[in-house]
Amino acid sequence: MTWLRYLELPGPDLLAGLDDDTRRTVEHINQKVAALGSLDDVMHFLYDAGRKLIPADRMSLAFVEEGGRRAVARWTRAEYEPLRLDTGWSADLGSGSLADVLRLDRPRILSDLEAYASGRPESESSRLLRAEGIRSSMACPVSVDGRVIGLLFRSSRRPDAFDERHVRIHQALAERLGQAVEKAWRIEQLESAMRAYTEMLGFVSHELKSPLAAIISLGRTLTGGLLGPLQPEHAEKVDRMVLRAESLVALVREFLDLARIESGELRLKIEPDVRIQQAVIEPAVEELQPQMEQQRVAFSLRAESGASCACDPGLIRIVVLNLLGNAVKYSPQGARVEIELATEPDAVRVSVENEGPGFAPGDERRLFRRFSRLSHPELSGRRGTGVGLYICWRIIQAHGGRIWAESEQGRWARFSFRLPREQRA
């Protein structure tokens, strides 16, 4: 079968005997490919620059997946339309010439697609490429550190369009290309996984809101005696049920806020001259009143009247809810919890302080990281997701403010944030 060849190129200098212009072009492509970021950028550049060295009407990149059992096309571009075999196409690699390319780790030149297809009527890819007018192709393994990660296809509407010289040029590009392509592809896979995680996070959290709200409403109806009196031991059980449901609502709220942030939906709706006590602090205190009563905390508010700034009151309320909720959760029964609202020459400052275990010196550097939780023995029984303080940090950062924490371990902890009075355009 002279129209189907697998090439093994001897010698370390793949460009031996080629002209200086070709060598310089290969070097330029290698340098440029290594500096590009996205898979699209790498492949479009390779397509445009590579056509000067390897004539092709079509180029496609497929990644080897499922432990080498399948090739999936992840990038395709051609000089014509329509494409019958486009991005997303996949093929099993149980047998056939592509399986041999991977097994032998050698490029394959197919100089007559018509002759090849006549002997393989079951090959869907050959049928689709023939329908596009393709008559010859070159399939080269894309490797990184000896691992074959994919296949690069160059195809032409002319028969016998590729020769050993073209394969040598490709192989001279292959190592740098493999590294760039794998890096770009891994980044895109991570971004895709993050999008899927964020969508699932938002979906699950949203679906939990309604049943939890129903549990809380029914529990309060029962303990309020609206359906008849309850025995004290029954009322206590229902109260505990409601409190656990409320803690789950707080967790759901955190994950919904996180989903908004991770998906890029955090948009500031700045209002001028927001009165922080009336628009932010008091609604947060009212929402957390049941937990404070259950914990029997001694709550106090010290506020300078009229303290205001330009901010998104809904988002800043999320910050206060998180900080005050944590203060209540990590306080012993009957402890003191205080909110202070103060004005500065060009800013307002809110501090939430509680008596409790606090945290060790140096731990403040970890508090505002996503999914970071402290491992102090006194905190081990307190449930937390490690996202609340991260959400606070993101919101305050978006406002151009600052958030920080202080503590005397074993006695108290104080979380504060500062917002500029005016937001920059």
Work out the count of structural domains: 2
Lateral strand order in the biggest sheet: 1-5-6-7-2-3-4
Task: Provide the CATH top-level class of the largest domain.
Answer: Alpha Beta
Strand content: 15-25%
Element-by-element helix/strand order: EHHEEEHEHHEEHHEHHEEHEEHEE
Structural class: alpha+beta
Evaluate the radius of gyration: 32 Å
Helix content: 40-55%
CATH superfamily of the largest domain: GAF domain
For the largest beta-sheet, the strand count, sense and barrel status come to:
7 strands, antiparallel
Identify the overall geometry.
elongated
Q: What would the CATH topology of the largest domain be? A: Beta-Lactamase
User: What do the pLDDT scores average to?
Assistant: 83
Give the uncertain stretches in residue-range form.
Answer: none
Q: How widely separated are the two ends? A: 70 Å
Got a strand count?
14
Q: Helix count?
A: 11
Under the CATH scheme, the architecture of the largest domain is 2-Layer Sandwich
